[in-house]
Design brief:
- This protein is an alpha+beta fold.
- Helix content is about 25%, strand content about 15%.
- The protein has a two-stranded antiparallel ribbon.
- The protein starts with 5 loop residues before the first helix and ends in a 36-residue tail after the last strand.
Length: about 100
């Protein structure tokens, strides 16, 4: 299994608009594909929020037995207001994203 390029991964994820008021399907698809390609068993949970917008959770599992590690995160972001640069266009400058 190849090592992840964390700068590339982060840049690709930042480039996917995922504002809270909208569906997070695009970023959920990305995370699901990433985990599947890394050998995870993936479960997708979906629901519709009170405004009628489809939302998704992605759960990845790898291995079996007792114990384990869980990582919980959210895939949505706040609206892109007040940015000097384009919010959904991550760039690397001076070794920083």
């Amino acid at each position: 299994m190849s090592q992840l390029d964390t700068v590339k991964l982060t840049t690709e994820m930042v480039n996917i608009p995922s504002v809270t008021r909208d569906s997070n399907q695009a970023i959920a698809d990305y995370v699901e594909q990433l985990l599947t390609s890394r050998g995870f068993e993936v479960e997708r949970q979906s629901y519709v929020d009170p405004e009628g917008v489809a939302k998704f959770n992605i759960i990845g599992r790898k291995g079996s037995g007792e114990g384990g590690l869980a990582f919980f995160s959210h895939m949505d972001t706040v609206p892109a207001t007040g940015w000097e640069d384009e919010a959904w266009n991550a760039k690397v400058e001076a070794d920083r994203i």
